[in-house]
Design brief:
Helix content is 24%, strand content 26%. It is globular, with a radius of gyration of 18 Å. It is α/β, with parallel strands linked by helices. Helix 4 links the parallel strand 5 and strand 6. It has a single domain, classed as Purple Acid Phosphatase, chain A, domain 2 (4-Layer Sandwich), CATH 3.60.21.10.
């Protein structure tokens, strides 16, 4: 991985540092992402970086160019959501690059995959599951049953990863919360994306799963979930559709840093977690 020139500790050590980044919005988001990875990766090695990239390209979808830019920063896997197909060449990414995931509970005929297992630098395996909600969202298959099926498949195939995380891309906090309890004790982390607003409910659920309703936006700080305030206000006040415009100016980096350690039974458990919300001057990014 390229998130830091060197590693402070040997990759075989029984500690993993994983970084999860919320919706990365347009060019400002990519700049904020690079700067955030640089700060955190410079302090200590990041064993994996998972970002939600459905807004990478001008706030609408992702393409080969913007995804490649993120992978060159050291990104391990990229989850997506309802804006997945806003850019035409995403089909190539889904068919050729297993680092790009689409919601697992989309139709079986949808190209790409919604869950994959990645080998980390120290040889550990990380399973990433990408789900999308159904409340206030476009129709999709049941995310609860989809999660059950892939976890069962991994168990039957004897390929259950050492660490399993879930990005639940959804509008309703209640639906996300329900998914947290549904998977409590079965995965290491359930976190939400899509609302672009970071929530303050990071906690360990009763069964041991780390949970967060939404990581928040990585992109232009002074915006309406990424869009310029002027364009958003015009639409809300007049009902007249306004041209889509990515906001500019100061940047915002929202992420979740999770440290896992081996337990006495040899299982990976969450040892530390830190919610990050950092601003940057645009000319410093």
């Amino acid at each position: 991985m390229s998130n830091t020139p060197g590693r402070e500790s040997d990759p075989s050590e029984e500690t993993l540092r994983l970084l999860f980044v919320g919706d990365v919005f347009g060019r400002p988001g990519r700049k904020a992402l690079a700067r955030g990875i640089g700060r955190l990766g410079g302090a200590a090695f990041l064993d994996a970086i998972v970002v939600n990239g459905e807004n990478l390209a001008g706030g609408k979808g992702l393409n080969t160019k913007t995804a490649t830019e993120c992978f060159q920063m050291g990104v391990t896997a990229m989850t997506t959501g309802n804006h997945l197909f806003d850019q035409k060449d995403v089909m190539v990414l889904l068919q050729k690059d297993k680092r790009v995931l689409r919601p697992l509970n989309y139709s079986d005929e949808c190209p790409g995959t919604g869950a994959s297992v990645y080998v980390l630098p120290g040889g550990q395996t990380l399973g990433v599951i990408n789900l999308i909600g159904r409340v206030f969202m476009a129709p999709s298959d049941c995310p609860f049953h989809a999660a059950d099926r892939v976890l069962s498949f991994w168990d039957r195939s004897d390929i259950r990863p050492d660490i399993t995380v879930v990005d639940f891309h959804g509008e309703a906090s209640g639906e996300k919360r329900a998914m947290g309890f549904h998977l409590d004790g079965r995965v290491h982390l359930v976190y939400g994306t899509h609302t672009h607003v970071q929530t303050n409910d990071l906690e360990i659920l009763p069964g041991g799963t780390l949970y967060l309703t939404d990581i928040g936006l990585t992109g232009p700080r002074w915006s309406v979930i990424g869009v310029s305030p002027e364009a958003a206000l015009s639409k809300y006040r007049t009902h007249v559709p306004a041209p889509f415009e990515v906001a500019s100016g100061e940047l915002l980096f929202c992420a979740l840093l999770v440290v896992l350690k081996k337990s006495g039974e040899g299982c990976w458990v969450v040892d530390e977690s830190r919610l990050i919300r950092e601003g940057d001057k645009a000319d410093e990014a």
